[in-house]
Structure formats: structure tokens, C-alpha cells
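go over both lines:
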Amino acid sequence: MTFPKLDLIHRHRLYSLTNVPPARTLLDVLREELRATDTKEGCASGDCGACTVVLSKADNSHAHSVNSCIRMAHSAHGLKVTTAADLSAHGKLHPVQQAMVDHHASQCGFCTPGFVMSLYDLYQRADGRAVTREEAMEAISGNLCRCTGYRPIIDAALAMHTYPRPSATAALPRHTDTRDPLDPHYALPDSLAQLLPLRARFPKAQLMAGGTDAGLWVTQQHRRFEQVIDLTRVSELLRIEHYPHHLAVGAAVSLHDAFTALAKQRPTIQHFAERFAGRPVRQSGTLGGNIANGSPIGDSMPLLMALGAQVVLMAWRKGRMVSRHIPLENFYLGYKLTALAADEVLCWIVVPHPLPGEWLGVYKVSKRVEDDISAVCLALQLHIEQGVVQTVRIGAGGVAATPARAVKTEAVLHGRVWNEASIQQAQAEIDKEFSPISDMRASAAYRQLVLRQLLQRAWLEQQGHGMVQLEDAS
């Protein structure tokens, strides 16, 4: 069996690698084929950040940090891959590297290349200006230092703009792509007109986007894919479109960009988005992928259910494109089971615009504040007029076999006076509505208690009470 070739731009050279299997990770190719051993494998699950690299187009546009340990190598075909050793030039360290040295920000050193790349991503985005401590913390939220050296790393981030900016690098080699974008081993279609007929031909092929979950199937479960259809080049699915009554988010839009667009309309979402995962995961993973994966602990689904989102499924049938809309809560049929037909692709997420008077609370409870999976996630959207609940939608994660709406609890609140007595009745109902399980993240009893308390928290926040969040105590 012959696999498609893989072209990568790295250290000012164009590498053309032949016969690269579809399930080979970018980290493995970097370390074993390109000998870029500055990029480390720590966890092989996108949790520690030691493998962080920056992907960009050949002209350095669209640069973003990603976890190379769970990113499929073929997804980087034709792109520039920057690792920590690439930053120094002409015998001089890059400002990020020099700041790390001067602030003694490396101890054992294993995690250092990943921190450097996360800060390099921030340095590029800051474009010469000073960054805030909050920006630095967010930039390294996907990196772990087991030597507890975070303070000097943050000091380095705050100082990196004070160093002379590096001179321009030499022009990169031109890349003429001769690869068949529809190669069935690892296809990279660039339009729906290519994607949907391909999906109809290969209904068993693995759909792949950022790979932040599917990558774990490779590194943790040792699964191998015979055929992959990659969605990250499909132009229509990379768009965020604004309509009079809703926002349409393409399924291949990154989690970071999708949450940014949603937070412009609903600022409450911003803090929740930063807790969703570290920046490299949010910049690699996609909103469509998070939804289609159907994990009961996926964080985007409870939020989107509370917002009344729908998904648009598309297929190629009888020589033309067909589509159907499904409310997100009806998309899930059972554990890891969705309404997606074998020849369909989840293409769009449609989110209604907020109406005047909307109140939104969205909560993630996990063991770690940053870069962790939820034990419980709850989102609640309310419209209250003259003290009476006119509409309410509640989405919950981590408490059932699928993400779910708390429709019975909603019914208790709908049309009722919004007061503490109503919340107490809702708490009693949500106890009966879900029967969570115990697992490594939380016990069933803890999850039920958290659900009750998050409803109480929503009530207190909506009433304007202070000291509801830990952040209020700072």
C-alpha cells in the first residue's frame, strides 16, 4: 500500500516525505523524519504542551500554536512548521528565548520548548506591544511545568517585548502542490463540491478536523485509519457568517474563533471559553468536531443547547447537495451515537442572536481551573419580564449518556415567578431528571449536588449578588 506524500516547510526548507501513513502524528514526523528533537513528547494526549509547535501558511499568515502530539501529520501538508530551535538566527536568540534565559525560566528544561512556542505565538499576536499578565497566563494555559517554574516564565512573557525585534528571515521556498487532494488514504478537499461526493463514495472514512480527540485514538488506543477525509481546507466550513436572526459557524472553524465570535454577542462566554481548554487545543480543535464527537462531557454542547442552536447536516445524493436542520438536543441518540447518516457531514452550527433581556449563565466544574475536562457543565438561558420567567433553556453535560437539555427542570421554571422558591423546586426536579454515574472525575452524588448548587449560583448571579465566584474574592 502506498500512502500520499507529505510536504512540510521547516527551517527554510521544503521537505517532501513519501509514504506517510494517515495516522502518523506531526510530532512523530518532526522527531523521526526531520530530526527536530527540540519538540518533546510528554503526555501524547495534548495535556502538557511539551510538543507545542506553530503552524502557518508559507507566508507566515494564519499562524497558531497546536499540540503536535495529537495532530495528524497530513493535516499540515503544504504548511510551515515552526519549532523552538527555529527561532534563533545568526547566532542570536529570539526575544522570547532571551527573555526566558534572562529570567531563569527554565529548570529541568523538558517543557521549555513548548513554553517558548506558546509565548512565541503570543509574541507574534502582540506585534511588539507589551502583554498583560492575564494574556501571558492564557497563552501558557496549555503548558505544564512540573518544576513549578511558572513565575519566571510569566516574568519572561512580560519582558519579551523589551528586546530588539529579530530581523526578517530569508524568503521561504515556493511550494507547488502536486498532491491529489482527493487521495482516498488522506483526502484534503477544498470545497463542499469536493467533500460531499467524496463522503458519499467513502462513508466509512474517518472525518478529521483538528484531531484533538481523534488524535487520542491514535496515541492512546493505537487505532489506525485506513481512510481519512480532512475538513480543515473546505473553504465554506471555515467561515463564520452573520445573518439577521442567527450566526452560522462553519464546522471547521476553530474552537478559539468560534468562541470569540459567540463572545462578541454574549461576553459571558469569554471566561468559559478560556476554561474550555488550553489555547493550542482551542486553536486546533473545531466546534463541529466537538459536537460531532458527541462526548457526554463535551463543553460546547450544553452551552449551545441553552442558546437554541441547530446543526446543519449535508450530503450528496442523486447528483446534488441536500441538507437538513436538527436542533442540537435532537442530534444525540445515545452514548457516542448521533443522527448523522453514513453519507452526511455536519457542516454548520446555527446559533440564534441574543434577544433583548436575555440572561446567560454558563459554568464548568473540573478538578483543575485550566486545561481540564469537566465533571459537570451547566448552561442556563433566561428571559424574564416583570419578574416572571418567559423562556428558559438549560443544557447539561457530564450527567447523562449524552449532553442533554433539562426539559423537565425548564418546565418547572417556565411561567413562574423568578425567586428562590422557584429555584428550590427546580433543584428538586433536576435531582430526578438526571442519574449521573460515578467515574474517575466525580461521584454520582457529587455531580447531583453540583447540579443543584449551580442552579442556586445562577439565581444569585442573576440577582447581582457578590462573592458568588472564586474570582470575586481576589
